[in-house]
Design a protein that fits this description.
Structural class of chain A: alpha+beta
Number of domains of chain B: 1
Number of helices of chain A: 10
Radius of gyration of chain A: 23 Å
CATH class of the largest domain in chain A: Mainly Alpha
Shape of chain A: globular
Mean pLDDT of chain A: 92
Mean pLDDT of chain B: 89
Distance between the termini of chain A: 54 Å
Low-confidence stretches of chain A: none
Order of helices and strands of chain A: EEHEEEEEHHHHHHHHH
CATH architecture of the largest domain in chain A: Orthogonal Bundle
Strand content of chain B: under 5%
Shape of chain B: elongated
CATH topology of the largest domain in chain A: Fumarate Reductase Iron-sulfur Protein, Chain B, domain 2
Number of strands of chain B: 0
Largest sheet of chain A: 5 strands, mixed
Number of helices of chain B: 5
Order of helices and strands of chain B: HHHHH
Largest sheet of chain B: none
Oligomer: heterotrimer
Radius of gyration of chain B: 18 Å
Largest interface: A-C, 58 and 46 residues
Distance between the termini of chain B: 45 Å
Chains: A alpha+beta, B mainly alpha, C mainly alpha
Strand content of chain A: 5-15%
Structural class of chain B: mainly alpha
Number of domains of chain A: 2
Helix content of chain A: 25-40%
């Protein structure tokens, strides 16, 4: 990287070591960058060349795993998904995501996020237990039924929405945009029958009615998931259920319950010669 | 579904207060609004104008419903804010009790004046 | 749940006001909360004043109105009406949108991403313009002596 570096940028990184420090402090590093360098590459440069004790999370480097969420110039970003060029600045301030405890330096503790996520039952719930335990076929879902929730399936659980949410800032028990968005994702799934169970969970205090639609979560989401929209649609369902105006639809059928379509052309039984 | 009913009530009372308070504010400015159209009326805050409204059942109804809906909307909204300040469940229960008591006291205080003035006319 | 301490990094109530460089819509929420609390305080003051002074008869009422007829209270009254205009119109928007209406349907997340509330920004700006017009009208009315 250093041979074709064209610019030097100062990384002002928040440091905190629970074994040594009473409170976080900042440390500056000069990082050589070229066109296309990401914030994560800058951090890796620091770790490899300047200070190996710097702690941050990273894994996929391509905005898929959701490990490297952090506050870059006071805005939550995925470090791997953010190029230094877009800031047009010589200095960059890096802090760990707020609204969750710090383990060390830029590493936040995501435990509460996952606990809240788990609490809304983020999986398909069906009445037929035997089929759930030992599936015999897939469920039939039409494209327009998939469109109802597809956008919300892209959540990578990076925690950026929680860092942006004003309610999560002060209310530690608040389920948060991530979990509430995922509650809607499963309630809107035509294969699911667990709406009533999830509505009871999200209807309590510190849940769906404590969102105030500041929509900072949707602004911050690096995957375009729009949790704020999911939460409002979830509220629509909860309110319709309470007012008894909710339309009930039969859950998706098993694929085995449809007559098998006859192929238009005969398909050979094997495409590779059997021994 | 307790929270859902509470929040739906918050929305309904909010919409009602928006309408009733808009009527209240417009009437309190009626001399200016009608003055623009060339109609001269006595200021709505004068004793005579105020007593005239106080003796009409419809106005008494508007004021008392504005008070009741407004108190519910404001105090429930305030409780929602407190709920987000990380207070313990027991502290929240005590505060909720205080807020309800406060609301009842202000409801009695606020309904006393229009009812007293209305019945003095009868 | 973790104890709150110096390295817990929860923004607390400070996070209601500022948590990062977010756009307009993040602050509609803050203004709604501030105007709501302001109107609650004013409402309690107004209710006490109109009840206590009104039932004491014409003379007390007239002297109260005389006492309140000064520039300080007129500006205060203007702020109350401006806060009400904002809280009422933004509140009506919230009632509609928080029940999932007027937000559109979920869309496939194709870069650059948009979100439901910012796709409606034109309406947000129209509502804010209406509030500004109401505020200016009431400012002329209350604070600089009417239209005459």
């Amino acid at each position: 990287m250093s041979s074709d570096a064209v610019k030097k940028i100062t990384f002002r990184v928040q440091r905190f070591d629970p074994e040594k420090d009473r409170k976080p402090h900042f440390q500056e590093f000069i990082v050589p960058v070229k066109r296309g360098t990401t914030v994560l590459e800058g951090l890796l440069y620091i770790k490899e060349n300047l200070d190996s004790s710097l702690a941050f999370r990273t894994s996929c480097r391509m905005g898929v795993c959701g490990s490297c969420g952090m506050l870059i110039n006071e805005y939550p970003h995925l470090a791997c998904h953010t190029q230094l060029e877009e800031f047009h600045a010589d200095r960059l301030t890096l802090k760990p995501l707020p609204n969750m405890p710090i383990i060390k330096d830029l590493v936040p503790r995501l435990e509460t996020l996952f606990e809240h996520h788990k609490s809304v039952k983020p999986y398909i719930i069906r009445g037929d237990n035997a089929e759930m335990e030992k599936p015999t076929a897939g469920y039939i879902q039409k494209p327009h039924e998939l469109d109802e929730f597809l956008q919300f399936t892209y959540c990578i659980k990076c925690g950026l929405c929680i860092a942006a949410c004003p309610t999560s800032a002060s209310d530690l028990a608040f389920l948060g945009p991530q979990a509430l968005g995922q509650a809607y994702r499963y309630c809107a799934d035509s294969r699911d029958e667990g709406q009533d169970q999830r509505y009871q969970i999200v209807e309590k205090d510190h849940a769906v009615w404590n969102c105030h639609f500041a929509a900072a979560c949707s602004e911050a989401c690096p995957k375009g998931v729009d949790p704020a929209l999911a939460i409002q649609l979830l509220r629509k369902g909860v309110a319709a259920k309470a007012l008894r105006v909710k339309k009930t639809t039969a859950p998706a059928l098993l694929a085995t319950s449809l007559p098998q379509a006859k192929p238009k052309i005969d398909v050979p039984e094997f495409t590779v010669k059997q021994k | 579904m307790k929270n859902t009913y509470l929040q739906l009530a918050q929305m309904v009372t909010g919409a009602l207060v928006a309408v009733l308070l808009a009527i209240h504010i417009t009437v309190q400015q009626s001399d200016v609004v009608l003055g623009l159209l060339g109609i001269k009326v006595a200021g709505p805050t004068t004793w005579g104008s105020m007593m005239e409204r106080a003796h009409q059942g419809s106005w008494v109804g508007i004021y008392i419903s504005l008070l009741a809906f407004g108190l519910f909307h404001a105090l429930n909204g305030f409780r929602n804010i407190l709920l987000e300040t990380n207070l313990s469940a027991s502290a929240m229960r005590i505060l909720t009790g205080c807020i309800i008591a406060f609301g009842v006291i202000f409801l009695i205080l606020g309904t006393y004046a229009p009812i007293a003035l209305f019945s003095s006319y009868r | 749940m973790a104890d709150k301490g110096p390295h817990q990094n929860y923004l607390g109530m400070r996070g209601w006001i500022w948590a990062g460089n977010y756009k307009l819509e993040r602050y509609l929420y803050l203004l709604h909360r501030i105007t709501g609390l302001g109107l609650l305080l004013f409402g309690l003051f107004h209710l006490t004043a109109t009840t206590i002074f009104r039932v004491q008869g014409q003379a007390v009422w007239a002297s109260t109105i005389d006492f309140l007829d000064n520039p300080l209270f007129r500006v205060g009254e203007f702020l109350v009406v401006a806060a009400f205009s904002y809280h009422a119109l933004n509140g009506l928007r919230l009632i509609i949108q928080e029940l999932g209406f007027a937000l559109g349907k979920p869309v496939p997340p194709i870069y650059p991403f948009t979100d439901a509330i910012r796709r409606k920004r034109a309406w947000t700006l129209v509502t804010l313009a209406a509030i500004m017009i109401l505020a200016v009208a009431f400012f002329i009315d209350f604070s600089i002596g009417g239209w005459g």
